[in-house]
Amino acid sequence: MRIEGKEQIWKEYQKEIPNDDFFYVRSCIRQNLFPASEVIFLKILREELSKTIYETPHHTTCGGIGYHSDIVPIETVMTIIARQFALMTEAGFENYACSCITSFGLYSEIIETWNHFPELLEKTRKSLKEATGREFNIPKHLAHASDVIYKVRNEIAEKAKYKLINKHTGKPLKVVEHIGCHYSKMFPNKGIGGAEYPYVLTGMVEAWGGEIVDYPERRHCCGFGFRQYLVQANRGYSLANTHKKFESMEPFEPDMIITNCPGCPFFLDRWQYVIAETEGKCYGAKGQGIPVFTYEEVAGMVLGYDPWDLGLQVHQIAVEPLLDKIGIPYNPETKYQGLNGKDLGKPELPKNICSC
Amino acid sequence: MKTLYEQLAKDVRFQEGMNACINCGTCTAICPAAEFYDYDPRRVVDLVQSKNEVEIEKLLREDTIWLCGECMSCVTRCPRKNAPGLIIMAMRSLSQDLGYFTDSEKGRQQLALKRTIGKMILDTGYCLYRRWVTPEAHPEGGPIWKWTFDNVDALYERLGCNLDGEGNGVLRKIPQEDLDELKRIFEVTGGMDRYEKIENYSAKKAEEMGLSMDEYITQSVLGKQ
User: Fold this and answer.
1) Residue ranges of the domains in chain B?
2) What is the CATH class of A152-341?
3) Count of CB atoms within 10 A of residue A330's CB?
4) CATH of region A17-145
5) In angstroms, rounded to a whole number, what is the distance separating the alpha carbons of residues A191 and A107?
6) Is the pLDDT of residue A12 over 70?
7) Which CATH fold would you assign to the domain B4-103?
8) Strands A141-144 vs A95-98: parallel, antiparallel or unpaired
9) Residue A57 is nearest to which of B168, B184, B195, comparing CB atoms?
């Protein structure tokens, strides 16, 4: 049988993802901005699915944000990454899973560079030995953490208590998926589905009952742009690019957004707030925003975890309207509480965008 | 003495990213920076491939090369497998090596990045450290950012994190022996040298401009007050 067209293209962008036994490294940005997401990732894989996910307190940042802010040279990030691989090697693992998209892109770039320039691999080995005394193997498999959840999406679906379906209409929720640029734009064959038809989040959404929205600016950057957000004077770049995406998706009336990048959900969430506060415009129905989620949060939602255990209270755009659509119960009284019901006060309400 | 083009060509990212550009402009059409700024990656790549030293030096000294967001959308689209984003990264490295970056307003922002992101990396092992990301510097974070900032210990504990704690977990304290290894990597591989160059060239420029270092940073980060 001949394989043609999209089927042929799709075949080229299949990716082998191991079923178990990962060495896991955390994301600087994700830990700070969506602190519960990595907790949920490990809970799902270890407790729900009995996978082996090893972590060590000894890994550091990969240096990616510094590299893409151009303050850290490539030789330095190569050696930091070599050290992370050394920790994996010392722990006896071959499958490497990282939580951050910037890291995933950088790992892919560095491994590709070593493949093209073997002398740089040797130089990195020497630098790492000189600096730390360590030696390393390159991982047999490199996965982004969203690849791992994609791999087990059907197992999650089997255990799910809720589906991404509007309980009032019985129709699938309309979901915008936003893929971090560094997942596959540089190296399409490193991501599931490549750069044009990335399937990593679409596969999750379809498995969990939702329907993907295809809109013109689906592949446009969220606007992080490293120095373009990190330096205050440049932040208009970030806002303008998020604005472009929302203007493009608005006519399709999405119910929610799912992302696989540490920074994107923050920008898509917070710039909606800024647009509402400065221009009075809200992109959701009835003065609401469009809620933005990490893929771990969505997995936790369908599995029936308490929304406040998932960290949904750190979102600026209220999630309650979406929880109501799906039929996920929540207690408004415990939203802003700490452990053992400790009262943490309440955040101020925004002026223009609906908050629950 | 190597030409600027020859120095760029030593950078592995330049070697990976610079093939023959056909000036189709696809990179500019897809570029988020071109959407927002007066920025044209096609023009940058074309000027560089011309090997015109005067034009290359101008690029290394002006704002243009600092406008890219390094999203690498251009890499996906280029029909000739050029990577304008990688060429920009090689140019930014050379601009900092030579001290040219301080000639442009956007280039001068490197000092602020070095003193924030660069400091967090070496001091904490993270490129972002929650307690240092204040609501005042991030008003776009909204009331929720302020609430999470004000309640960071209690909230992150409630969410199962290990903020500044020993052992594994979200935002654990990275042990000092690991920070020492990280610093040693910076020393061995040129990371510390890059930091020092950014500091030294910036101090020299601040003096030329008649500014204190605080004024220099404020101007670069917020614009002239």
Assistant:
1) 4-103, 107-126+176-225, 139-173
2) alpha beta
3) 17
4) 1.20.1050.140
5) 13
6) no
7) Fumarate Reductase Iron-sulfur Protein; Chain B, domain 2 (1.10.1060)
8) parallel
9) B168
Give pLDDT tens digits for A79-101: 999 999 999 999 999 999 999 99
Higher pLDDT, A13 or B31: B31
The enclosing H or E element of A256 equals: strand A256-259
Closest chain B residue to the Cα of A315, Cα to Cα: B144
Burial of B19 (0-12, 13-18, 19+ CB in 10 A): middle
Which residues of chain B neighbour A315 with C-beta distances below 8 Å? 144
Instruction: Supply the pLDDT for residue A356.
Output: 66
Contact criterion met (CB < 8 Å) for B32 and A241: yes
Give strand ranges (E) for A26-77: 53-54
> With an 8 Å Cβ cutoff, are B144 and A271 in contact?
no
Amino acid (1-letter code) at residue A319: V
Domain residue ranges in chain A: 17-145, 152-341
> What pLDDT does B133 receive?
92
Give the residue from A349, A298, A340 showing the smallest Cα distance to A319: A298
Distance CA A228, CA A31 (A): 21
Q: What is the pLDDT of residues A109-166, one digit of tens each?
A: 999 999 999 999 999 999 999 999 999 999 999 999 999 999 999 999 999 999 999 9
